[in-house]
Amino acid sequence: xxxxxxxxxxxxxxxxxxxxxxxxxxxxxxxxxxxxxxxxxxxxxxxxxxxxxxxxxxxxxxxxxxxxxxxxxxxxxxxxxxxxxxxxxxxxxxxxxxxxxxxxxxxxxxxxxxxxxxxxxxxxxxxxxxxxxxxxxxxxxxxxxxxxxxxxxxxxxxxxxxxxxxxxxxxxxxxxxxxxxxxxxxxxxxxxxxxxxxxxxxxxxxxxxxxxxxxxxxxxxxxxxxxxxxxxxxxxxxxxxxxxxxxxxxxxxxxxxxxxxxxxxxxxxxxxxxxxxxxxxxxxxxxxxxxxxxxxxxxxxxxxxxxx
Length: 308
Prior knowledge:
One of its GO terms (molecular function) is oxidoreductase activity. With 308 residues, the chain is of the alpha/beta class. The chain is 47% helix and 12% strand.
């Protein structure tokens, strides 16, 4: 009787976990031949899986990250898995404004098209600072991508129709922005939440500013994914999180599906500036849909990154 009870309990737990980890696949097989895609942090995790999927569809894929060795290894893997040799790497450090500006200058010289920009790279909840004295989460997750997108916006307009996809997270709902202290760096988790909320406001304001100019923008919550974000923490924490991620988080391939969906689907254009998860539009908390706050954040970000 005990054995039967154990088996039934285990089966129920397995089915519950399987249900919790369910995700939709992007079934749109639209080709991207002749299109150029730029993915920040495309050397691992969701970024790499997205790169493979879009390369399979025929796109020229550029992955931008700071680790040369990892990037070169990722390029070889993406080429092999996608059977597409049109995959390259460019060096970019989103924690350094000079690096971002140099990257954009080089990109604009080399690349005549930019059809899809995927702001994928991100820093988890860490107490650290960028080279320009911004909190690491806010500096990389929001300001770095804000500057990158703005410096490439002209090329995106020239390549219209084009898209900007920015990865965020549903934990945005646990914090609100404090314009007296945007560079907040006291409690790591709250700092991360604020940076993800900033990603949402950025997407909304970008969509408003480029409305009718051939550029659309989308914020994507990929779900909770078994990526390598724990590398920033202690070994003990990593071991603990590996167990939790195995039980409750989804593989990177599944996490990339909504990003891929927003990159290729024609239906998403009806939700310009929208928030997506599980390959469909999702509802935001009311405070995260305030156009006044989005505009105020945009203007504050322009001053912080010294964007003329």
